[in-house]
Amino acid sequence: MAEGCVYLVGAGPGDPELLTVKALRVIREADVVVMDRLVSHDIEALIPAGTTRIFAGKEAGKHHLRQEEINDLLQRLAQSGRRVVRLKGGDPLVFGRGSEEAEHLARSGIRFEVVPGITAAAGCTAYAGIPLTHRGLANTVRFITGHAMDNGDIEYDWPKLVDPDCTLVIYMGLGTLDRLATALIGAGMPPDMPAAAIQHGTTAHQRRVTAALAELPQVVRSARLASPTLVVIGKVVGMAETLDWFQPMPADTQSVAL
Ligand code: SAH
Predict the structure, then answer these.
(1) Domains in the chain: ranges and CATH
(2) Which ligand 1 atom is the nearest neighbour of the CA of 117?
């Protein structure tokens, strides 16, 4: 039997044109695609009709397959000689547990390759008119997860996260946005620091709100933003109006399209 292989592939944040050429090739050549919830429908549509799809998707509190089950599934599929694409939103190695899957495959002696993708921090900000760095506004970027606060994994050293020259990007931060803003301000972040939340970034359903950090949780609630939403805090957010180039579908046609 031919030796199988697992490709850990980043699908990018949503716009199918942000897939890499390599990602598209391995998707077209795959026998099986094991999908993440975060992969957009437009990207799913690129999977050839005859290819087996398995939904391993995760939603907060609603895991379809546990991580160990996904690891075992990838292992079994590869051991049966299949070319497996493990398709993940954004980049597989940024808050995507791709490295845990890779670790499992490496330990099991299974061949794997990693195909990087555009991570939400890069894709969603670009489509929201927010540069991650800009001379005079930010010379450092930091990616953190809000989810870790919820499950008690991480208690951040808040004063260390307060740096007026750093753009702070928060993944999975919607559920803990109140606590996050309070903790940052408590540690010395100016309450009027520009902040943004971007929902469904890079897609026709993208919505962006901006506000002073102290106001952001309330603004996000009023706008009823839902997951996936990326939070960005830093002076660079002040450029969003000037660099606002992306035209998502107007809100009234969005509900029809959904
Ligand atoms: N591996 C992914 C991140 C997975 S964590 C990546 O590299 O992008 C999931 C979080 O990513 C979401 O809660 C949200 O904060 C962010 N995210 C991913 N895609 C997004 C999108 N299209 N719009 C807004 N946020 C997104």
Answers:
(1) 5-118 (3.40.1010.10), 121-239 (3.30.950.10)
(2) 7
**Would you say the CB of residue 167 lies under 6 angstroms from ligand 1?**
no
Structure tokens, 205: 């359903």
| Residue 90 DSSP class | B
Check residue 255 and give its pLDDT.
Answer: 47
Residue whose Cα lies nearest atom 5 of ligand 1: it is: 95
Alpha helices, DSSP H only, in the chain?
21-29, 41-44, 67-79, 98-107, 120-127, 147-150, 158-161, 177-186, 216-222, 251-257
Collect all residues with Cβ–Cβ distance below 8 Å to 54 and sequence separation of at least 6.
Answer: 32, 33, 34, 35, 73
Give the residue numbers annotated as catalytic, written as ranges. 36, 58
- pLDDT tens sequence across 9-22: 999 999 999 999 99
Q: pLDDT at position 149, please?
A: 67
Q: Please state the atom number of ligand 1 nearest to the C-alpha of residue 147.
A: 13
- CB of 230 within 6 A of ligand 1: the answer is yes
Q: Return the H-helix or E-strand segment holding 231.
A: strand 229-233
Give 89-135 pLDDT, tens digit per residue.
999 999 989 999 999 999 999 999 999 999 999 999 999 999 999 99
Pocket test for ligand 1, best of 58, 88, 200, 230 (most atoms within 8 A of CB): 230
Report the separation in Å between the CA atom of 10 and the middle of ligand 1, taken as the mean of its atom positions.
Answer: 11
